[in-house]
Amino acid sequence: MCYLLPQPGGHDIYRPPQTVRQHVFVREEFRYLNVSRIGFYTLDDSIDCAFNCLSHTSCFSVNLAASRGIEGKFWCELLSSDKYRNSTELLGNKSSHHFVIKSPCSSSPCKNGGICVPSDKNGIFECLCKKGFIGEFCEKDFKSCKDAYNSYKSNASELVTLHFGSNTTSVLCQMGDFGCGDGGWTPVMKIDGNKNTFLFSSGYWTDKSEYNPSGATTGFDSQETKLQTYWNTPFSKVCLGMKVNGQLRFTVINSQASSLHSLIADGQYRPTSLGRYKWIALTDSRARLQPNCNQEGFNTKANRKARVGILGNNENDCRTCDSVIGFGVDTTACGDRSSIRAMCYILVQ
């Protein structure tokens, strides 16, 4: 026979005999699981409800009357699922208790709202994570769009919440190859070359403050933004985009760093090797870049400056450069120094 044992906190468990000793039923007092039932019985002894479930291979839990009915019997429902798979269907009532076979999910191993699904093998379970969380126990949150891409395995751009300690930010993750290669690309900045927000001298290049974070959710449009990803997101690639006369072009810099802030904020020059023709190709036929100097990278500085860009000169040196293409230029927030005022985008992966 089965024994009803008192447990701490007022919960009871049904413990079956030795032949099925591994099965334990945990009671949810005055609860009813609203899922499909695979059997219904009226019983003289409530213990028989547990036996009926254990003898049915498709039974995962039961609803049992809290007290005897008019004929002195208990009603018992055998259920095809359990509260772990259907947590939103566990409802309160005054006439029944819910009993579920104890499983690896009983200890609530899944974090951050993840749903625990036990398997048929004893001791094995799977956590189905809510959006924005990954890991065996849903214990890890997304810190970059690369994390989201690796989780979703989709090339569809998606709005994702990134977590940086106690802070969060929502971004439109650009997935797949839109011009910079496959994977998940994390937006960092959007710069309007017709405005002065992100000139070379702007404090936004050196501080850790956001600017219009809602602009991160709107894709490749004209809303300027600077995000927490500027100082929080490590990468091995930087995607640079310029939109000129409605034409959007991209190029990629292979550069590894703990964040874009770590490459730029200290003002130290760090060279890159794209080559002048790739910088020119970012703009259009009106772009002006003189043939010499060609100093490029992060914090390019002579008499002209760019936070990310390339310098050009007529003379065969970098002392008197008259031309520049880049992001955070000294006289133009993004574009070239002469005629190009581009809408610009920086993403990392």
From TrEMBL:
CDD domains the UniProt entry points to: EGF_CA
Keyword tags: Developmental protein, Differentiation, Disulfide bond, EGF-like domain, Membrane, Notch signaling pathway, Repeat, Signal, Transmembrane, Transmembrane helix, Ubl conjugation
GO cellular component: a single term: membrane
Boundaries of every EGF-like domain copy: 101-139
PROSITE patterns: EGF_1 (PS00022), EGF_2 (PS01186), EGF_3 (PS50026)
SUPFAM superfamilies assigned to the protein according to its UniProt record, in alphabetical order: EGF/Laminin (SSF57196)
Record's keyword annotation contains Transmembrane: yes
Major location category of this protein: membrane
Membrane topology value: Single-pass type I membrane protein
Entry's localization field: Membrane
GO terms of biological process kind: cell differentiation; Notch signaling pathway
S-S bonds: C110-C127, C129-C138
Protein name, as recorded: EGF-like domain-containing protein
Phylogenetic lineage: Eukaryota, Metazoa, Cnidaria, Anthozoa, Hexacorallia
